[in-house]
Recover the amino acids of this structure.
């Protein structure tokens, strides 16, 4: 909860400055809802699922939802990554309820990416920070509600407001891990959402989903060093496939984009040449018409002068 409350602080001035823009507010609340569901499912799933498994399951995203047009090379990378996830799940601990919740979390994050792609491209740049502010505030509010409901209903027989004292609150504040909360709030939440929002102005949600396939590599690496989780041969193969799927999408995507840019440049040159030829032809026609008009004008003027001279004589 503290993590998300901390992440809202840098965005509060932008929310106040923006005022009452209904479109920005509703879009930010929607994005905050999807990412809140993702964070909540992931947090509960991690209670029973291994951190390495959870990070690899997070690579599963809803790429084809809402009728998104997905190129063939992205489908190739997604299938390779999903095969790697399946191989990973075959090793280590058996599947559990936490893995199912992590799958739901990945689906929520996938929907969030798709909606972020659409909303970021329809929102003006000067309103992006306010949009992020509404999104992060929604996440912070949802986590506060979850925290209060969990404590109240989870310990309904033990919870008593009169039992709290100032010394208990002071001890709780001193023992609270403020440094991890500040780090995850500022960098893992605020900075990452800001980078994602700005990047998805140019990168599609499907490509972003495959790029996020690198997340489990880092998550499993930290789980290896900090939590002592170890892989078998099958899990190493799965991790390699996920990494290869992500790299394949990036390489093929760059080739595809370069060829598309080259094709568009050639088309522009052809159109420019065609327009230039049309303009040159039109110029000739206009000049001919202008010359004819001048000729008619001069003839008419000459006839009038001749008629005037005849009248004077």
């Amino acid at each position: 909860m503290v993590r998300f409350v901390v992440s809202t602080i840098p965005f509060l001035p932008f929310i106040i400055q923006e005022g009452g823009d209904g479109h920005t507010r509703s879009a930010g609340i929607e994005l905050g809802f999807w990412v809140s569901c993702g964070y909540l499912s992931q947090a509960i799933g991690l209670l029973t699922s291994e951190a390495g498994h959870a990070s690899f399951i997070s690579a599963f995203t809803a790429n084809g939802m809402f009728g998104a047009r997905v190129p063939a090379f992205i489908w190739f990378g997604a299938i390779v990554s999903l095969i790697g996830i399946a191989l990973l799940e075959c090793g280590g601990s058996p599947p559990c309820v936490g893995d199912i919740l992590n799958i739901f979390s990945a689906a929520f994050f996938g929907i969030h990416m798709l909606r972020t792609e659409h909303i970021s491209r329809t929102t003006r740049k000067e309103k992006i920070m306010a949009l992020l502010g509404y999104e992060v505030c929604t996440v912070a509010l949802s986590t506060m509600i979850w925290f209060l409901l969990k404590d109240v209903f989870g310990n309904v027989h033990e919870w008593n407001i009169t039992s709290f004292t100032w010394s208990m609150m002071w001890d709780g504040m001193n023992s609270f891990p403020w440094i991890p909360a500040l780090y995850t709030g500022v960098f893992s939440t605020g900075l990452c959402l800001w980078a994602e929002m700005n990047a998805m102005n140019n990168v599609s949600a499907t490509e972003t989903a495959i790029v996020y396939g690198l997340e489990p590599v880092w998550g499993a690496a930290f789980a290896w060093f900090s939590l002592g989780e170890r892989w078998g041969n099958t899990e190493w193969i799965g991790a390699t496939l996920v990494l290869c799927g992500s790299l394949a999408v990036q390489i093929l995507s760059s080739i595809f984009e370069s060829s598309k840019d080259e094709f568009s440049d050639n088309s522009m040159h052809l159109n420019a040449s065609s327009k230039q030829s049309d303009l040159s032809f039109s110029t000739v026609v206009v000049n001919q018409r202008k010359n004819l008009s001048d000729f008619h004008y001069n003839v008419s003027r000459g006839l009038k002068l001749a008629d005037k001279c005849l009248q004077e004589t």
